[in-house]
Amino acid sequence: MTKRIHVAVGIITNSAGEILLAKRPDHLHQGGKWEFPGGKVEAGETVTQALIRELKEEVALDVTDSQPFMALSFDYPDKQVLLDINSVTEFNGTAQGLEGQLIAWVTKADLVNYDFPDANKPILEKILAQ
Ligand SMILES: Nc1nc2c([nH]c(=O)n2[C@@H]2O[C@H](COP(=O)(O)OP(=O)(O)OP(=O)(O)O)[C@@H](O)[C@H]2O)c(=O)[nH]1
Ligand SMILES: [Mg+2]
């Protein structure tokens, strides 16, 4: 049995109400899909610390406030994940794809037009219900 991977994920909303998406590079797990930026929680880190670090590393944003949104476990055939999803409402900086990934600010209504990892279905449902 492999270890479940703990991931800090950010639903980053700007002042126009748009949500930041990033496209996973093709060679990675779930490559080519759009995701909410984030990454693995490292040993000794809290979810909030991991979220702040990952959003700085991946999209060049400095998170100053976030709130828990939901948590979910999902089993891919090749990987088990625990996603700790947080709403990010306060941040500084201009979003950039620092790892060469495409990024997009997307309205809630437009989210249905993007292909997400299978684990993300409940996240999308909760966002769209709000
Ligand atoms: N960031 C992010 N990861 C997601 C989402 N949905 C989802 O299933 N995942 C999965 O969660 C894991 C996150 O790992 P990651 O590749 O982003 O990790 P990381 O940024 O720390 O990168 P690294 O592998 O270079 O250390 C991947 O297996 C990915 O497929 C999502 O919306 N956002
Ligand atoms: Mg990542």
Description:
- There is one protein chain.
- The protein is α+β, with helices and mostly antiparallel strands and about 130 residues long.
- It has one domain: Nucleoside Triphosphate Pyrophosphohydrolase (Alpha-Beta Complex), CATH 3.90.79.
- Helices cover about 15% and strands about 40% of the residues.
- The chain has two helices and seven strands; from the N terminus they run ββββαβββα.
- It has helices spanning about 45-60, 120-130, and strands spanning about 5-10, 20-25, 35, 40, 60-75, 80-90, 105.
- The strands form two sheets. The chain has a four-stranded mixed beta sheet, with helices on one face.
- A hairpin with a 2-residue loop joins β5 (about 60-75) and β6 (about 80-90).
- The longest helix has 13 residues, at about 45-60.
- The protein is globular, with a radius of gyration of 14 Å.
- The mean pLDDT is about 95.
- 8-OXO-guanosine-5'-triphosphate binds near residues 9, 28, 29, 30 and 38.
- Its EC number is 3.6.1.55.
- Its cofactor is Mg(2+).
- It is an enzyme of class 3 (hydrolase).
- GO terms for molecular function: 8-oxo-7,8-dihydrodeoxyguanosine triphosphate pyrophosphatase activity; 8-oxo-7,8-dihydroguanosine triphosphate pyrophosphatase activity; 8-oxo-dGDP phosphatase activity; 8-oxo-GDP phosphatase activity; metal ion binding.
- It comes from Shewanella septentrionalis.
* N-to-C SSE string, H for helix and E for strand: EEEEHEEEH
Q: Biggest β-sheet: count, sense, barrel?
A: 4 strands, mixed
Q: End-to-end span in angstroms?
A: 37 Å
Identify the CATH architecture.
Alpha-Beta Complex
Strand content: 35-45%
Q: So, the CATH homologous superfamily? A: Nucleoside Triphosphate Pyrophosphohydrolase
Strand order of the largest sheet: 4-1-6-5
